[in-house]
Amino acid sequence: MHDRAIWNNFERLYIDYQPRLIAYALRFVGDSVEAQDLVQDCFVRLWDDYAELEEDEAPMLLFTMMRHRCLNFLKHKRIVREYADRQISRIRPDRRGGGRTSL
Fold first, then answer.
1. Minimal CA–CA distance to 14: which of 58, 53, 56, 49?
2. Angle 103-78-67 (CA atoms, 0-180°, nearest 5)?
């Protein structure tokens, strides 16, 4: 288990960088709730390996993780939207014949 000094350092990192990371994520995703969730995910993930990191590595790693997490989020969101659009277009009435297209 992590000792108290490690926990205190991590807590200080969270206090110092959480607002900056939310602002950074918000520029990518445009939604404050999503940005907060993504930042929280990064801190949880970082905690798993925090004891093995050098103290000066953590901030750089957080911003790198945040960028990747945001880009993956946006990619997933685009894929879901494209899938939904395809499904809607399959069940939307065919405008030429007035009937439904086959599924």
1. 58
2. 155
Q: What is the pLDDT of residues 63-94, one digit of tens each?
A: 999 999 999 999 999 998 888 888 888 887 65
What count of other Cβ atoms lies within 10 Å of the Cβ of residue 35? 22
Measured CA to CA, the distance from residue 42 to residue 76 in angstroms comes to 17
What token pair was written down for 103? 């599924």
Is 70:34 a contact under the CB 8 Å cutoff? no
CA 98 from centre of chain: 42
- For 55-91, give the DSSP string: TTHHHHHHHHHHHHHHHHHHHHHHHHHHHHHHHHHHH
Q: What is the pTM of this model?
A: 0.76
Are 69 and 41 within 8 A, CB to CB?
yes
